[in-house]
Amino acid sequence: MNRENQADQEDRVIYKVVKNHEHQYSILPADWENPLGWWDGGKRGFQTECLSYIQQVWTDMRPKSLRQNMDDSVSKVV
């Protein structure tokens, strides 16, 4: 049994991925209400599954507003 499977065996909680307006991700137990400013991010499952999903979709760790500001700055220079 690999480490991820062992972790899933020990933690039987079903989680959900949540996302905020800055396109930052986190996980919560699936039966919890989303905090203000966060909505469902499109994945439910064991902790390792949710974290793996986040790793696949959250490829740029910069907040959305920073990415937009940087893009705007580059546009003005060019």
UniProtKB/TrEMBL annotation:
BP GO annotations: siderophore biosynthetic process
Residue ranges annotated for the MbtH-like domain, each copy included: 5-56
Pfam families: MbtH
One GO cellular component, as annotated: cytosol
Superkingdom assignment: Bacteria
Span of the signal peptide: none
InterPro entries named among the record's database cross-references: MbtH-like_dom, MbtH-like_sf, MLP_fam
This protein's name: MbtH-like protein
Organism, as annotated: Coleofasciculus chthonoplastes PCC 7420
